[in-house]
Amino acid sequence: xxxxxxxxxxxxxxxxxxxxxxxxxxxxxxxxxxxxxxxxxxxxxxxxxxxxxxxxxxxxxxxxxxxxxxxxxxxxxxxxxxxxxxxxxxxxxxxxxxxxxxxxxxxxxxxxxxxxxxxxxxxxxxxxxxxxxxxxxxxxxxxxxxxxxxxxxxxxxxxxxxxxxxxxxxxxxxxxxxxxxxxxxxxxxxxxxxxxxxxxxxxxxxxxxxxxxxxxxxxxxxxxxxxxxxxxxxxxxxxxxxxxxxxxxxxxxxxxxxxxxxxxxxxxxxxxxxxxxxxxxxxxxxxxxxxxxxxxxxxxxxxxxxxxxxxxxxxxxxxxxxxxxxxxxxxxxxxxxxxxxxxxxxxxxxxxxxxxxxxxxxxxxxxxxxxxxxxxxxxxxxxxxxxxxxxxxxxxxxxxxxxxxxxxxxxxxxxxxxxxxxxxxxxxxxxxxxxxxxxxxxx
Length: 443
Description:
Layout: E1 17-22, H1 25-33, E2 42-44, E3 53-54, H2 56-59, H3 69-75, E4 80-82, H4 86-103, E5 107-111, E6 114-118, H5 123-126, H6 130-145, E7 149-154, H7 157-166, E8 172-174, H8 180-184, H9 197-205, H10 211-215, H11 219-225, H12 228-237, E9 255-266, H13 269-289, E10 292-303, E11 308-319, H14 322-336, E12 343-351, E13 354-355, H15 358-361, H16 367-387, H17 398-410
Parallel strand pairs: 2-4, 7-8
Antiparallel strand pairs: 1-6, 1-7, 2-3, 5-6, 9-12, 10-11, 10-12, 10-13
């Protein structure tokens, strides 16, 4: 397989795109924070009742994301189960972006545990080949964060993604343009970034099982059978960069989503309503952190069969006060909840976010009443920041909080102390919001 020598051959990498992917990122952050956990089966997700992330020691025993913690204990009684600390994970994520930006200003913050970087034309700047630049990025990430990362290098984002997945964990896979077929032939079509199970099933019907078989199809054949995004993926597999890097950091938010999956599934209306109340409290706290108010609210219940029941509410006035949002949701809960049906996930989305201007607060309510609520929740935010997220909550969220604590205790996890090393990184910033779409069948 061709590799770069000296400055390298430009036709091996007409563009040089690096993809960095954290290995078992959430669990790895916990191990980095507490080195005594190294080499042990560590699982996060105690607050949810299911596995959010697992170290590779846990994965080797058959523990995977999404399984119940009760089953984790059966598989591995000595497994260490921790509550997730998303603020900590965001700190590590910000540091990952910062390290990548040492090597290139063109960085796409694709996810909390992964990013793309365009290092095209920077060989002379760093006095190194593209492959050596990628190795240096990987080395710095490991040395400074004490977490392993898998890195892919190629001429498009899709090929770089294939590279980062090719050798996990702690792998580095360069895929030069002239050597890509060897990698595509051993990559299942369903494992290609951007190709979902439905498209994979369609291509299987046409005897296309590998990424190489798809890449070798004529463009006319591809156009006749798949949608435009899949055609663009086909072009990227053939070395044509179609998906440009999204370089802008997201500083404004149109929505904030909070969800929670629990096990076992429940058909109890009061419990599900309480979970939605807790979702709203968490989302409002983030909105207040960014001085935002919502003009609408969407909520859903997801069944054990992974089907969604959802409703959207338009608010009479912008707000980030959870009690007002819960009051707006209440009349529609009975329309979404169906007695006798079991649900595994609740979720809410604050819609139409805008800046919380003083005139908005006083538009439809008595100034004293509105100002009083604002001050109350400022104090609530201060207490939560100091004593933890479950130190104070609304009465409507009580059943959810109690159930979470019982689940954590049942899994051998007490009220986890949220120690967070504030001096861990330079120029620490507030965590960013990561909006996730609601996917699935909607009634």
